[in-house]
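Limitations

Structures in this collection are predictions, not experimental determinations, and the ligand pose is part of the prediction. Treat each record accordingly. The example that follows, with zinc ion as the small molecule, is included so readers can see exactly what is and is not provided: the inputs are given verbatim, and the output is the predicted complex.
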Amino acid sequence: MKASRLASAILVSTLGLGSFAALADVPAPQDIPFDGTLKISVDATDIAHRIFRVREVVPARPGPLTLLYPQWLPGNHSPTGPIDKLAGLVVKANGKVVPWKRDPLNVYAFHIDVPQGASEVDVAFQFLSAQDTRQGRVVMTPEMLNLQWNTVSLYPAGYFASRIKAETSVTFPAGWQFGSALEVASRSGDTVQFKPIDYDDLVDSPIYAGKYFKRVDLDPGAKTPVFINIVADDPKYLEITPEQLKIHQNLVQQMYKLYGAHHYDHYDFLFSLSEKMSGNGLEHHRSSENGVGPGYFTEWDKNVTSRDLLAHEYNHSWDGKYRRGADLSTPSFNVPMQDSLLWVYEGQTQFWGYVMAARSGLWKQDEALDMLANVAATYDKGRPGLEQWRNIQDTTNDPVIAMRRPLPYRNYQMSEDYYSGGQMIWLDVDGKLRDLTGDKRSIDDFARAFFGVKNGEWDVNTYTFEDVVKTLNDIAPYDWASYLRERLDGHGPLIGGFAANGWKLVYNDKPSAVSKALETRTGGANLTYSLGVSLGKGGDIIDVLWDGPAFKAGLSPGMKIIAVNGKEYSSDAVKDAVTAAAKDKSQPVELLVKNFDEYKTLRIDYHDGLKYPHLERIAGKPDRLSELLKAR
Ligand SMILES: [Zn+2]
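Predicted complex:
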């Protein structure tokens, strides 16, 4: 998107609203160099109060100046810059306070009148970490912090973010170590000065710092280094077995074998293992922010469901950061993004995240198959909204619509289904490519042709829907435009890729190891494919399948199950009741539920027993799925 588009949007809106038009008075970004360098210093030492203190010098000329706080964040694909946590803004010039005025139609813009004789303004403010998760992401704890530059800087309106230079320094709590894609210029005690960088790359280069820190080489001896920088709540969580190390090193090599090229000069995984700092999964060009619970390494067997995270975020360096949908690539952080191609950006990354978890050994093959079975079930029976009113393409608007807020009926409303629905579409594409070429070509060829070009280059390389179609056609000629549009705009189940690859989805009364692990993690029970309900801890109803048996009996999310067939609630009691109702068809599953302050008994007339998804081989068809998941 270019500056002219913003100007025309303003014009249209002015004409439409006549004299009542009131528009944000913010200069559109121009592809011209910003004169001078932003100097941003962050004091990150106040871990007791969880406050980042910012001082920033912005070169300026006398007259109007608009400073912007980044709003549209790459990776979030949404206008979610945490401006509610910016406080204490004071602007000075020539040592005197200069008043600022927030734009009433764009609350991310601050207008200043720079006085005569001033050649710069001094800006001071604080960024306040959420104190608990109800307020947002907690990014500072007694043991670690996550510094994102979009939260601790303002930048001048009127320029492409890539045309603004920035010099930064951070003072860390005493003795802490850090990881980042930023390069160090110098250090003095706990203050680190970083090398100058373009503002758009700065925002793409966050920092994880911690009291307990470990930096591990994932590609020893390589010309292009890849490291993982780990911070943890306690040193004991930093223990990594030689086998775990090997698996994470495999991930790098498997990615290189797939793409045959990379788009960074060095890469740093930033990884937090914490119960206190909020989790994360956010991609960048030369790094990624990853956050899970403390036991990722030390309780390896319990954490199967989070083991595709690093593979997913790493894949984004190719898919999303280097190659990006043309409508998503914006010149600054305050120009609206359009998310129409997220089924490639996130959908194919979701696909490769699973496949690479398997190829590297992060998942054993049966773990990968169990994980895939759960996704398959979602797009077989778990998204009535897909059948009844929405399609995958429309869900690419969800980062703007819902901004990841919890939803009343997620299965019916749908939410960012371009991730896993997109994953299913790409599995289907893989089967089709193999069909069309007699197993000579596959989605590996697409990945290499589309994302693996121009080794070492990391300027954003944009694409359109037509470019995707063209690359597929180059591999195997076919009507790919119709093939993709049917799946993106249609309302059918999206699991054809399994049959094409020699497998089918079945349901039985035994949960897979992965389904069990998921239930252990949530402390509830997933009865989506039987009763049509998923339960959290203590009988809380998390989701009710639209028009499913529980829905028809009157259950809704937010209720709590108190008793089952006259006995106190437990997840086992519900499962036993489902099994009993399958044996004695006259007996419903009887639940005492609490709805606000009201108690009532609801009877679910369901007699088909427990149902959990599994993948099963189709006899006589070649097993392409195992081939896909096998290490290269
Ligand atoms: Zn992603």
